[in-house]
Amino acid sequence: MVDKILNFDNTYLTLPQVFYSNVNPSVVPNPEVVLFNEELGQDIFGHTTNPQEWSQLLSGNRVPENTTPFAQAYAGHQFGHFTMLGDGRAIVIGEHVSPLGKRYDMQLKGCGITPYSRRGDGKATLGAMLREYLMSESMFYLGIPTSRSLAVTKTGEKVYRDRTHDGAVLTRIMSGHIRVGTFEYAHYYGSPNDLESLLNYTIKRHFPSLLHSNNPAAEMLEYVMNRQIDLIINWMRVGFIHGVMNTDNTSISGETFDYGPCSFMNTYDLNTVFSSIDTGGRYAFGNQPTIIKWNIVKLAETLLPLLNPSQNRAIEIAREIIDKFDNLFMERWYAMMFSKIGLIKPATGDRDLVDQLLLAMKSFELDYTNTFTSLKRGITTKESPSQQLDPLNPWLTNWTRRLEESEGGFLAAAALMGKTNPLFIPRNYFVEKALAGADENNYTLFNQLLSLVKQPYSSSNEIEKYSYVPNNYDHNYKTYCGT
Ligand code: AMP
Ligand code: MG
Question: Are 402 and 368 in contact (CB under 8 A)?
């Protein structure tokens, strides 16, 4: 009986009632599990499972006895505008505690309307849920904190968007779904007590080391800021563009989540945007550091009453923390870039080396991922660099000289580069092709990509087939939210 391996303990329900609504998923006609993540199942349940036994549960048709599902209330700044939101098409089935004692929200996304659905239908399309599954697994295996996907379950129902789609539910696993937007909700719609309860709950759940700190709100703010800086730098390392970094999609735990219009950048350009609604480029690849700082300022504003009873002092405390952002970000971003070019002990002048490489990559429209792969290949095989790198010629001479002079030489540099530069990212063109196949019930390409995302740092003959971008494909490529 599958219920036995679900060890639910819903601490979120100890928060004041304003933070959630108890609601059950809608019943669907014909659940069928089309993808099940065995590795993740093993990790969180300590068991292998037979996915088809789970179809009633993963579709939301059957709620296990030992839990009370809930939809979370939150607000958020979407493209800079504040609004009330909440889980409009997602329900947390429960908080599962793994055999190792780790706590995970088990959330069904696309499982029908909730009190926060506004005019939406609460549903999701198969294509969008498969896309989230692939992208989140890719991020996980790239070594980047993220929500994960346990399953995609077709509902047997049609969902209406631009056209008719198969409906599906994604089972999302995450260490917690508290967002900057949850704090905004508490601050603007709740009472001072609600806000304080949320702070205490969040600290207990995500930052227990801060339980006895002198100023828990200040320390949490700094913790979240640091985690988000690390997260965005990881995104920048692999060319990830989240696409909709609204405050409700910024987790307190520092995990990537809400994979909507996200994508990976191919040609290096800070202005890269694929999201159809991001016409101003607010969430462009290179704008992500600025936006995360903006989101952290929004978090700080909600915490003011808890930072200090005097508003002036509270603002000072918040400012002292936020003022550290720029330096921290720059230091860690360069450290990440140094590792991408194999510099183990960076020295004065190395920042120029990074800046010049990126400038050249931009002006010669080089592929972000493949450039670093070729650089590494060049020093590993001592072959003359591939033609693709010709435009980098004066830079290459400086770089190789720099590596020759450094401890460990090419060998040590290549080892470091191998850890930080993925060989494989899911390219837009192939992702869309795989999803089109799956829509016709042909999962061959989807499964091929899924197996490649699991080993992004290992070379294989297969990778090359999926590591190019057809001419001009990206120019017209668009991604969509909430489909
Ligand atoms: P997202 O873009 O996924 O972060 O969603 C933004 C907000 O819209 C959240 O409050 C979602 O719950 C809500 N939402 C998105 N799609 C739907 C839908 N199909 N039905 C109801 N609410 C939705
Ligand atoms: Mg969201």
Answer: no
Residue 118 gets which letter from DSSP? T
Q: Kindly give the distance from the C-alpha atom of residue 249 to the centroid of ligand 2, in angstroms, as a whole number.
A: 5
- 29 CB under 6 A from ligand 1? no
Residues 144-192 have pLDDT tens digits of: 999 999 999 999 999 999 999 999 999 999 999 999 999 999 999 999 9
State the distance from the centre of ligand 2 to the C-alpha of 169, rounded, in angstroms: 15
**pLDDT tens-digit profile of 289-304?**
999 999 999 999 999 9
How many Å apart are CA 151 and CA 147, to the nearest integer? Answer: 13
Ligand 2 being an ion, which residues bring their Cβ within 5 A of it? 249, 258
Residue spans per domain, the chain: 2-174, 180-332, 341-420, 428-476
Cα 482 to ligand 1 centroid, rounded to whole Å: 6
Q: 248 catalytic, yes or no?
A: yes
Q: Could you report the per-residue pLDDT of 330-373, keeping only the tens digit for each?
A: 999 999 999 999 999 999 999 999 999 999 999 999 999 999 99
User: Among the options 248, 278, 367, 474, which is catalytic?
Assistant: 248
Q: Counting every residue, how long is the chain?
A: 483
Residues of the chain below pLDDT 70 = 1, 382-387
Q: Whose CA is nearest to atom 22 of ligand 1?
A: 88
Q: CA torsion sign, 176 to 179 to 183 to 185?
A: negative
From atom 7 of ligand 1, which residue's Cα is the shortest distance away? Answer: 85
69-98: burial string, b at 16+ Cβ within 10 Å, e else: bbbbbbbbbbeeeeeebbbbbbbbbbbbbe
